[in-house]
Amino acid sequence: MRRHNPFEDFEQMFERMSHQFEDMSRQWETPSIAASRSGGMEIDVADYDDEIVVTADVPGFEKEDIDLTLSERTLTISAEREMERESEEGEYLRRERRSSSMRRSIRLPESIDEERTAATYQNGVLTVTLPKLTMEEGDDARHIDIN
C-alpha cells in the first residue's frame, strides 16, 4: 500500500509557482543574478584567439536530455529530465529527486562559425567549442549535435 504525503500537493504547487516567478523575474535580472537562479547550471565562458569555449555543469542528465541552440550570437543550453513514476512492486520511503529542467542563454561577444561548432558531454560536464568567424555572416538558428 502506498503511503500518502499530505504535503505533496502543496510542494508541487510551490515548485510550479517558484518556476513561474523565476521566469518572470529573469526579464529584469543582471547576468550574475540569473546565474545564481539557473537551477544549478553553472557555466564558464572562455574567450581564446580563434574560439569561445563554454563549459557547463549539467549533472544528472543524459546526453539525449540536453538541447543546444545557437541563434543570433546567443547559445541556449536546455536540459529536461523526467523521473520514473512509482512501480506497482514497491513504494518510496523518501523521494527527493524529481523531474527537473535547466535553461541557460549566453550572449556571445562575436559571430560564430556555426558549421564548425562542436559539443561534448562527459561525466555531467558539457563543453561547447564555438570557432569565431573572421567576417560577418548571417545569423540563422542552428541545432548543435552533442558527440
Automatic annotation (TrEMBL):
Keyword Zinc: no
PROSITE patterns the UniProt entry points to: SHSP
Keyword terms: Stress response
Pfam families: HSP20
Bias type Basic residues, positions: 95-106
Entry-linked InterPro entries: A-crystallin/Hsp20_dom, HSP20-like_chaperone, Small_HSP
Region Disordered: start-end pairs: 80-111
Chain ranges of the SHSP domain: 34-147
Similarity field: Belongs to the small heat shock protein (HSP20) family.
Protein name: Archaeal heat shock protein Hsp14
Species of the source: Halobium salinum
